[in-house]
Amino acid sequence: MANKRRKAREAALQTLYMLELGQPKQVIPSIVRYWEHDWVVESDCHLCPAECKDRDKPKSRFSNPVNRQAESAFTKQLVDGVRKNSDTIDQEIEKHSLHWKLNRMSCIDRNILRIAIFEILSCDEIPLKVSINEAIEIAKTYGDKNSPAFINGILDQIK
């Protein structure tokens, strides 16, 4: 289920990113395109678009329409949860990010942290370690080279 949820987390990150950049009209079309993209799960459990990797590797379909409903519902839960609890979440980030103000962090890192902290504080069914690991993996894809260590350092303090 973690791999199915990673796509939902990535969609939530993209949504929060666009909302933060003041592009709310872009959110819905972008997310619709995201969910319609032909995704696959590779044998090593990393997500990628179907055309981006060696086609000779064993692959399986990422999801069917029923799973996509669950994935999009999880995306909505994350986005709504982060937005409704933004003050509490941002206080947690600032409390645990020594020498870093929230507005100095990259928009990507800030929103990866927000999603992970929302999960940690509000999604009891998701183990702490899973939330942290997923945030780190997403940071490897979307952040800069220092993002995974930065995010890990902050999230490790929140327990």
Summarize the structure.
By secondary structure, the protein is mostly helical.
Protein architecture, described:
The chain is mainly alpha-helical. The chain has a single domain (2-155), classed as NusB-like (N-utilizing Substance Protein B Homolog, Chain A). It has seven helices and three strands, in the order H-H-E-E-E-H-H-H-H-H. Strands 2-1-3 form a three-stranded antiparallel sheet, covered by helices on one side. A hairpin with a 4-residue loop joins strand 1 (39-42) and strand 2 (47-49). Helix 5 (107-122) packs parallel to helix 7 (147-155) and helix 6 runs antiparallel to helix 7 (147-155). The radius of gyration is 16 Å and the shape is globular. The protein starts with a helix and ends with a helix.
Q: Which terms summarize this structure?
A:
3 strands, 159 residues, 6% strand, N-utilizing Substance Protein B Homolog, Chain A, 3-stranded antiparallel sheet, 7 helices, mainly alpha
